[in-house]
Amino acid sequence: MKKFKTTLLALGLTAVLAGCGNKLTTTKPVYNNSGMVAVIKGDASGKTVSYKAPTKTGSVKVHNGKYVVTLPMSTKAQKVTLKANGQTATTKIKAATAIGTYSVVAQQYNQALVMTAVPADTLKAMQAAQRQGTPTQAQIAAMTPAQQQALLKQQQEFQAALTKAKAAVKDQQLPAKVEGLKQVVKTTSSTMRVNVQDGELLSATLSAPVKALKGSQKDNQFGIEFGLLANALGADAKKVGTQFQKAIKDQNGSQTTIKTITSNGVKFDVGFSASELFIYMTK
């Protein structure tokens, strides 16, 4: 009997020690969003950690006792449940603030993009006509036949230029509707990704190969795309561009990020890899 009790005690102790050996922790009780995602880190026993959140469910591998889970940001706070080796842990992710309504941003970006494809002389004429304003029916009636004909010809030329410009940038335009974390545009100079939840744009990322920035023509194209997106988000593209160029110039070879640039509430975070540049836009 004594031997039996000793055996039970030994088995119980072994179970307790085994349980103590299993570990699952998070580095924070609440996480902020960073860039386009939220990153959860921690320590865990075993080979994998499974996770469940409103935006994503899956599992990740454990390396040297540590794990990293990457989740899309959301307009709502998220509760994340993690499991590994019979252990359960929970953490939270703060709600993200939308930069704007995606459909509005996309419309403004696309309209501005079309205008960049209009010939310079035609664009100048369009801007002059816009400043003068659209003539009223009474004003048109007061014109001579020659003036009316000239006005009609000008309007037809403007419409033809816009139609041609729209066709030229068709593949570079943002889609009318997007939901989730998606790549929306890929050009020769950059790739654009957005995170849209319930029609609200939470973040946008513009990335480009570092080598693509060295040629003046491609550099200019990347600058145009960056400026159009910044303006569509409500930022002052000119000021952001100036600060961006200065930061790139002042950056040393060992840096992988530069200080956050903020304009009208929109944050621009820039990161570098060996071959690519990333600009993360959030609020």
Q: Please, could you describe this protein's structure?
A:
The protein is an alpha+beta fold and 283 residues long. The protein folds into 3 domains: 2-93, Immunoglobulins (Immunoglobulin-like, Sandwich), CATH 2.60.40; 118-168, no CATH class; 174-282, no CATH class. It is 38% helix and 31% strand. It contains 7 helices and 14 strands. It has helices at 2-21, 102-116, 120-132, 137-141, 145-168, 216-232, 237-250; strands at residues 30-31, 37-43, 48-52, 57-61, 66-72, 78-84, 87-93, 100-101, 180-186, 191-197, 200-209, 257-263, 266-272, 276-282. The strands form 3 sheets. Strands 8, 9, 10, 11, 12, 13 and 14 form a 7-stranded antiparallel sheet that branches. Strand 9 (180-186) and strand 10 (191-197) form a beta hairpin. Helix 2 (102-116) packs antiparallel against helix 6 (216-232) and helix 6 (216-232) crosses helix 7. The longest helix is centred in the middle third of the chain and has 24 residues, at 145-168. It is elongated, with a radius of gyration of 28 Å. The chain starts with a helix and ends with a strand. Mean pLDDT is 86; it is low at 2-19.
